[in-house]
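Anyone up for a design puzzle?
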C-alpha cells in the first residue's frame, strides 16, 4: 500500500495541494483522510487514507508546493523585450496581405472586404507596436476587438475575419520574431 502512494506521488506531473482541514476529516470508516488536488491536469479530487502516506511523503508534497510557488515568482519577474517598430511594420504588411487574400477567397465579407481588412490591420498594427514583445506575448484581446469592432459597425464577417487573423498570427508572428531577432 505504501508503494501505491509513492507511485501516485511520483507519477503526477502537476503540483499537489494537500487539503487537511481539521473539520470532519474522518470518512465513513472512521479513518482520517487527506484530499489531494491536481491543479494543471484535472479538477478531480482523490481521497487517500493518511495511514498510506508517510510523514516523509507529506514533507515532499509541502516542499513541492513551495518550490512551485518559488518558480511562479521567478516567471513573474521575467521582463519581455520591448516591441520592435520595424518588425511590427513588416509583420503588419504580411498580415494585411494574407487577410485580404483569405477574406477575398472565402467571400465572407462581401463588398466590405477593404473596410474589414482596414479595421483588423489597424488593431493588429497597434498591438504589434505597443504590446508584442516576442513569444509569450501574443494576446487574444486584439482579435476579440477586431470581431467586436466589425460587428459594431454592422459589417459582415466579423467572427470569420478575427478567426483568420488569430490563426495567421499563431502560425507566423512568433516564428517571424525568432527569425528577426535570431533567437531559437
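Challenge accepted. My sequence:
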Amino acid at each position: 500500500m505504501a508503494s501505491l502512494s509513492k507511485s501516485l506521488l511520483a507519477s503526477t506531473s502537476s503540483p499537489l495541494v494537500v487539503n487537511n482541514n481539521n473539520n470532519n476529516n474522518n470518512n465513513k470508516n472512521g479513518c482520517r483522510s487527506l484530499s489531494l488536488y491536481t491543479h494543471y491536469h484535472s479538477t478531480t479530487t482523490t481521497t487517500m487514507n493518511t495511514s498510506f502516506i508517510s510523514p516523509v511523503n507529506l514533507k515532499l508534497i509541502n516542499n513541492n508546493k513551495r518550490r512551485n510557488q518559488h518558480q511562479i515568482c521567478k516567471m513573474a519577474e521575467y521582463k519581455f523585450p520591448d516591441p520592435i517598430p520595424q518588425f511590427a511594420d513588416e509583420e503588419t504588411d504580411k498580415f494585411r496581405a494574407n487577410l485580404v487574400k483569405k477574406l477575398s477567397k472565402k467571400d465572407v465579407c462581401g463588398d466590405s472586404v477593404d473596410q474589414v481588412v482596414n479595421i483588423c490591420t489597424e488593431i493588429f498594427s497597434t498591438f504589434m507596436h505597443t504590446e508584442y514583445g516576442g513569444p509569450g506575448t501574443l494576446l487574444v484581446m486584439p482579435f476579440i476587438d477586431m470581431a467586436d469592432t466589425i460587428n459594431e459597425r454592422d459589417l459582415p464577417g466579423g467572427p470569420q475575419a478575427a478567426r483568420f487573423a488569430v490563426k495567421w498570427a499563431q502560425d507566423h508572428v512568433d516564428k517571424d520574431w525568432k527569425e528577426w531577432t535570431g533567437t531559437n
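A detail worth pointing out: The chain has six helices and three strands.
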